[in-house]
């Protein structure tokens, strides 16, 4: 369904009905977006299809240890699916969404699907929350999923079947993510790992900095110009490969204590990999150490292989 997606961009709205768990299908904004699909994207106005939008509005105050004091940003996705397969698609979407959150977590078991049995639901409607549990601190709702049946008299919302072309009234599966609480949950997830090390275990794809560079000097008193030049060169190569690095690029360590402190700083910043360039070894044979934040282990890699090696790590994840 992703190739059929239509991105409607960003907007702000004070219409509470458009953010209602089940009543959004009766809102004027939902109708406007559907008409925009028909008029501006006729080739994608088929069933199944989906609409994406970003909206600013008041928080819905879902169960969460984070309660924003200001308006939040909603990422909303509406899946229009065949009515007779609505429940099947709903189960598939909730499973895929949970897997997505688990994939980017340092502790996948904290995510759970929570049915919203206490909600008063119209006929044919379903609702679940995906929540991250942080023990005694509480839970964070990271995503809300709802299955809504359009009223039978809503002929304006009919879409042709993508295979047969027959017009039909689709079922709607809506995904709502409050971005600010969800981002806080991902950050808290990176801290709540139970390890002795003070590391921010952000997923390598989400980490602001993908790699750091530390040069290890042979002597404490004299700064090696050659080592500095090599660190600057590696920094430039990685930036050209479009890897995200800290603004200062690299740091030099004069002894083992300084190196340990520097690596601890990288771990607290959530940097998943650090390149260790030893003045004596790297300058003589081109070999360096690639240290992993998660395992605290290092592997030996030749300097000429580093850009492609790192890109493959991030590409294959």
From TrEMBL:
Residues 210-312 form the Anticodon-binding domain. InterPro entries: aa-tRNA-synth_II/BPL/LPL, Anticodon-bd, Anticodon-bd_dom_sf, Gly-tRNA_synthase/POLG2. GO terms for cellular component: mitochondrion. GO terms for biological process: mitochondrial DNA replication. SUPFAM superfamilies: Class II aaRS ABD-related. Coiled coil: none annotated. This is Anticodon-binding domain-containing protein.
